[in-house]
Design goal:
With 167 residues, chain A is mainly α. In chain A, 71% of the residues lie in helices and 2% in strands. Chain B has one domain. Chain B is 74% helix and 1% strand. Chain B has a two-stranded antiparallel sheet. The model of chain B has no long low-confidence stretch (mean pLDDT 84). The chains are: A mainly alpha (167), B mainly alpha (502).
Amino acid sequence: MTVRTAELLMAIATILMSMGLMWKSTELHITWVPEKGPGSGFWPFWLSTGLLLASLWTLARWFLKQTPESRSLEPYLPREAIYVVGVSVGAIFFLLVSIHIIGIYLGLLFFMLFYVKFVGRHSWPLTLSLTFGVPIFIFCLFEWALTIPLPKAMTEEWFYPIYDLIY
Amino acid sequence: METILIALGGGLLQAFEPLNLTMIIIGCIVGLFVGALPGLGSVNGVAILLPITFLVPPTAAIMFLAAVYYGAMYGGAISSITLGIPGASTAVATVFDGRPLAQKGKADVALTAAAIASFIGGTISVVLFTLFAPPLAEFALRFGPTEEFALMLLAFATFIGLGGDDIPKTIFSILIGLVLATVGLDIISGKPRLIFGDVTGFLHGVNFLVLAIGIYGIGEMLWTIEQTRGEVVVHKVTTSWKSFVANVKTVREYIMTTTLGSILGYFVGTLPAAGATPASLMAYGLAKTFSKDPDSFGKGNVSGVAAPEAANNAASTGSMLPMITLGIPGSPTTAILLGGMIIWGLRPGPLLFTEHPDFVWGLIGSLYVANFFTLILNLAFIPLFVRVLTIPFTILAPCIFVLCVVGGFAPTQTMHDVWLMLLFGIVGYLLRKLNYPVAPAVLAIVLGPLAERSFRQTLLGSQGDPMVFVQSPISAICIALAIMLVSYPLVSRVLKARKAAD
């Protein structure tokens, strides 16, 4: 996909999104409510209208080839970019999914192992020190120092002995 | 003047309290690293680190984050000079002469000049800040909701008029930030708004940190991964005490351009859309214009390093002036600081000076202290910072992603926000590739609730008469300036076209 096509698709997507936001705002009062002032939907409705106009303006500029992007026939996401960015996004996605199932600490462990060893191809000693070091650091900082409990899903019970020690 | 000095003395004493001083020093070190690493700047550092500051009281937290901001401005020069890649956009102008100096084997000269110029810029701007902040805050006490709204309108207009980005895309960015701020319970009626798909996670609104970390943590990291896939070459830096003393003595060569750059940087920094990047570019241009040897610029002139470095440091302090006195952030980083202040239960704006003088003067005092420590740390640890730059991205990136995920979870402690953050990161990356500016969205989501409240309060008070916005002189001036700023790009385009036709 070229940058030119991407700008067109993005403009269309933002137009649809703006219209959706306008429609959603109309679930509330978008006009003046006596003795209460502008209704709850007034502000988001008119902001969404502004979004729609700005998106239409971008679309018009695309048709007139006024933006550098509308004239660019370069690939929007070059092949190498898709690989390197895709791997990162995919890894974060699976990290978030794993947080729901196996909890954040096991999730972080697998995430670091994948990124450092299989993407970075670093040595095993470095990989293992980061794989175990990062979750331990996060635990000490957030759970111990900041007392912010992080989601542990099915591994929650494993932490009971540690809670007894630190709290 | 005497009251200012007494208050400043109190602020300095506060900055020297053990906890605060420790936080300032850690902040300086972290900031230097954050600034030095390509792809990470003050805004990324402050956004990712804000959730961690809940560990300490608000005063220590703001001192830490301000020190990170300061340190990052110093640190940006390190990668600009040794790698030829700006550590942050604010250090772009430093590459022009910093890189040629490094190629000539004079990286130490450039790094010392950058550090000293940053110190001079920081010092001049902090003094200007101390002098301007109290009277401006006193003046701003006259502001009611009408004036507040007009001022915010002016802040957004500066992005359109002076941002230099595509206008409809800038407007889109501002408005999407404002719309996202409306998600959740209505601040006046308490009714739920824009709850997409009845997902309960939207009821608590879209936290500004979720957007900021998404855009500046994940989105920016994806952008940097894509941009810096190739090998980077770090220029060797050899330092010795003797060469350091000799480099310091060359300060006379660039003291004038540094001073001018500092003053220019400070005032440009106070404008919401301008900030450190244009300030440093303008200071570079100014230094070249007034130089006796303009041809040497771009080939390794020390003034070409000193002027932008002084300006970007001065601009970072300048951007704190409207944040502290008016409640309007002067840069994306100060927008996040302002959001942090709201989390800590403080209401940014003129009342801060009267209601929380310890906080304000503590922050001002910390700027003096941070400026001094950053200079010392920077000069002492240059070889260490250069070494850090050789850390492969495949180690740095996952660590930053982990901090983003945990940082996105910490404020509200819901996975909903973490998913939203990933979405914002991906969309922010895709939008950025199409030249949509992202900074206005972050500023808008922070100012959104304040803007809506003042807008609705004003209209409620005037029974729906919009003329109230032009009846107050301050508001009328702000709106007139906003209209002028918005029409400026269009007018200048027409004038250029007419000139070309002639």
